[in-house]
Structure formats: C-alpha cells, structure tokens
C-alpha cells in the first residue's frame, strides 16, 4: 500500500524514516529550545546550572549511545527506535509536570538513556543506501531535521507565548508518540533474522579505543566531530539566554520565548535549504572531505556574526550562515566515518561517533554557563575559534579522501 504513495524511484523505507525523523524533530524542537528559559523563570536556575541541565542529557546519552547502536545491530533497528521514542514521550511529560529541579534532571537523563532515535535512524539509512549515495541520503536526514526544526521551535514559541511555559512540553509529548506508532506499524526491519542469529552466534567486531587510535582516518573524523560539537554545545545551551539578555533585552517572557523560537526556526530553514539545494552540488564539486572544509569556513562566519549580533535581524542572518555550515559539514563527516570501517561495524562506528558527540557536548555545555556568565558574547567567539581549528584535521582528511565522483541523481 505504502509503495503506491511514492514514485517508483523513491525508496519507501527512506521516505518513512524521513517522515519519522521530521515528526520527532518537530516535537523536540517545540520543547527543548525553551527549556533554559523555563528553568530560569520557573525554578530560578542560574546560567551555570541551566547548562549543566542541558549537559545531563548528553552525559546519559554518552553512556547509552554505543550500547544502543550495538543493540540495534544485534536485535534490529525497529525495537530500539520504538523504545527510544517512547522514552522521549515520557521525558517530555515529566518536563511539563515537573514540580522541582530534580524532575527536570530526571527527565533529561531518561531522554538521554533512551535517546538513540536519531543515531539508529542514521544506521537504518546506511543499511538501505549504497555507499556512493550514502552522503546524500544522510543529507536528506539532515534536511528533514532542518525542516522539522523550522516548525518545532516556531510552534513552541507560539504555544509558550499563548498558553504558558509548560504547554509546549505536553504538546511535544503527544507529537513524539507519532514516530513510535509509525515505526512499529510501517517501517520494515533491515536486520534480518539470519543477521540477528549470526550476531548471537558470532562475536561482532567492536571498536575499541586502541582500534580507533590506529584508524587514522576515523580518528580525524572523530576529532573534527568533537571540535564541531564542542562549539555547537556552547551555542545550544546559551542561545536562549543570549536572546533574553541581548537580542530581546527588556521584553516580556512571552516575547522572549516567541523571538527565540522564531530565530531557531531560521536555523532550521537554513539547514533545510542547505540540504535540498546546496549539499549535492558541493559534493559533486568537492567530494565529502572538501565539502566538510567549506562547511567549517561558513560555520565560522556564522559564529562570528552571532557574536557581533545585537538585534534580531543580524542574529537571523548569522543563524543562516551557521546552519549552512553545519549542514555542509556533518553529513560528509558521518559518511566518511562509515567508510573507515567494514560494513558490519556501521552501527558501532555511528554509536562511537554519537558517543564522541555526547562527550564533547557534556564538557562544552557544562562549562558554557560559566563562560556566558563571564561575558554573554564570549561563548560565540570561543566557538568560532574552536571551529576554525578544525581546518587542520580537515585538510589532513582531504588528502586521505580526495574528491570522488558523486552521482548527479
């Protein structure tokens, strides 16, 4: 039935996973951008504790990430996807009902432990996509991420302004239930019974620390991922506070929530536009590694402009640059990571990549509040500097993965 809904040249499984990612990001985008403002206004948390709250999610995800990736390799993508999506539903309900600070932290930790939905979705995409088209397919995931982030923060800002600070969390919980239903009902499993039995009977290759250190190409990819995510973590955890302190200074909490939501919607629009209109021509021209280099440069420009922004219009422009750089950098890096290991380690390498992302974000967000307290502009200058430093491993990676032809369709 579902194949009749899509053209014959479109993989129905890819269409379904993209729909699932879209709905999931709409729900997350509604709730998470306003969480710092909610924590500050409802529970009087300082900037330092607000960013530690953000880091708690990634601390839990760091512990669970490789485990979830390996579980999806052994027992299938679908059970892990459904479980992670249900964990997100419960965590949003807890945020909406939170009577104290402990509930906020418990909700974020729960979502982190079960938060393997995006990484397992990416593993699913690599399962169904030939190697030469993998970057473009992962780019579609990022474009869907961006599309969901257009609507999510905008809706969250509107709901927060109209119905109060807790309403977006409850609505996000309801929306996040939809992906679990779609996954369990419509999405076919890619890990066959034979592959699961083989995983049970034979030890699967694992990625130890020593193996990663010996794999120079993978080490470079992970180093770039860590640096990029460190800068992103600083921005993510302080942007709402920056909006209140600088971009919308002196305005009501409702206007601040709405303004921050709209600006983050601009980020989603920039990422979506990058994936659908810019990424493919860049890949054809520069290949994976070259496109990542361009993404770094564009990202640095965006961060510098954010640091200089003092009013919403300039912040919107800087958000477009940052989103474009992010969209050009991350899909090629993920594709390169999967090309540095055998196919049967794709889930493990994506899990290792997610752990690197989580570890980097833990530290960046844990210290971001103190950096923000020292100077509201400092997090973005520091992010620009760290991102610029990623040009060194990027150039080394470019020599290891020279431009390769990509299909035009």
What is the percentage of strand-forming residues? under 5%
Let me know the average pLDDT.
83
Might you state the CATH topology name? Growth Hormone, Chain: A
Q: How large, in whole angstroms, is the Cα Rg?
A: 20 Å
Relative helix content: over 70%
The count of domains is 1
What is the CATH architecture annotation? Answer: Up-down Bundle
Class in CATH? Mainly Alpha
Largest sheet: none
Unreliable spans: 1-9, 405-409
Number of helices: 16
Order of helices and strands: HHHHHHHHHHHHHHHH
Distance between the termini: 26 Å
Find the structural class using helix and strand composition.
mainly alpha
What is the tally of beta strands? 0
The CATH superfamily is MFS general substrate transporter like domains
Overall, the morphology is globular
Keywords, please?
single chain, 409 residues, 82% helix
Describe this structure in words.
The protein has 16 helices and no strands. 82% of the residues lie in helices and 0% in strands. Helix 3 (47-75) packs antiparallel against helix 14 (346-374). The protein has a single domain (13-201, 208-400), classed as MFS general substrate transporter like domains (Growth Hormone, Chain: A, Up-down Bundle). By secondary structure, the chain is an all-alpha fold. The longest helix has 56 residues, at 253-308.
């Amino acid at each position: 039935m579902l194949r009749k809904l899509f053209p014959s040249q479109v993989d129905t499984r890819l269409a379904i996973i993209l729909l699932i990612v879209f709905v999931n990001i709409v729900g997350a985008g509604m709730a998470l951008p306003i969480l710092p403002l909610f924590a500050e206004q409802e529970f009087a948390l300082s900037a330092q504790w607000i960013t530690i709250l953000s880091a708690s999610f990634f601390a839990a995800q760091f512990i669970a990430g490789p485990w979830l990736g390996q579980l999806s390799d052994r027992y299938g993508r679908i059970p892990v996807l459904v479980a992670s999506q249900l964990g997100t539903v419960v965590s949003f309900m807890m945020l909406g009902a939170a009577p104290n600070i402990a509930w906020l932290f418990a909700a974020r930790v729960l979502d982190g432990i079960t938060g393997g939905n995006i990484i397992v979705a990416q593993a699913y995409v690599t399962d169904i996509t030939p190697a030469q088209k993998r970057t473009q397919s992962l780019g579609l995931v990022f474009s869907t991420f961006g599309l969901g982030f257009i609507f999510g923060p905008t809706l969250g800002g509107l709901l927060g302004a109209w119905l109060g600070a807790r309403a977006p969390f409850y609505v996000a919980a309801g929306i996040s239930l939809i992906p679990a239903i779609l996954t369990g009902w419509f999405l076919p499993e890619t890990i066959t019974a034979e592959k699961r039995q083989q995983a049970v009977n034979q030890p699967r290759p694992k990625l130890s620390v020593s193996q990663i250190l010996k794999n120079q190409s993978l080490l470079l990819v992970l180093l770039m991922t860590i640096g990029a995510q460190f800068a992103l973590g600083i921005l993510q955890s302080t942007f709402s506070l920056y909006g209140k302190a600088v971009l919308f200074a002196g305005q009501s909490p409702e206007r601040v929530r709405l303004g921050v939501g709209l600006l983050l919607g601009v980020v989603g629009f920039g990422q979506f536009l990058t994936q659908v209109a810019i990424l493919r021509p860049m890949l054809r021209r520069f290949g994976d590694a070259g496109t990542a280099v361009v993404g770094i440069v564009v990202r640095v420009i965006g961060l510098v402009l954010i640091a200089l922004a003092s009013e919403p219009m300039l912040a919107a422009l800087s958000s477009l640059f940052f989103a474009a750089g992010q969209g050009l950098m991350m899909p090629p890096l993920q594709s390169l990571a999967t090309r540095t290991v055998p196919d049967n380690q794709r889930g493990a390498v994506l899990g290792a990549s997610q752990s690197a992302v989580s570890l980097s974000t833990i530290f960046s967000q844990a210290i971001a509040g103190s950096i923000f307290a020292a100077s509201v502009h400092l997090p973005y200058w520091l992010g620009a500097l760290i991102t610029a430093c990623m040009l060194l491993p990027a150039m080394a990676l470019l020599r290891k993965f020279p431009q390769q032809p990509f299909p035009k369709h």
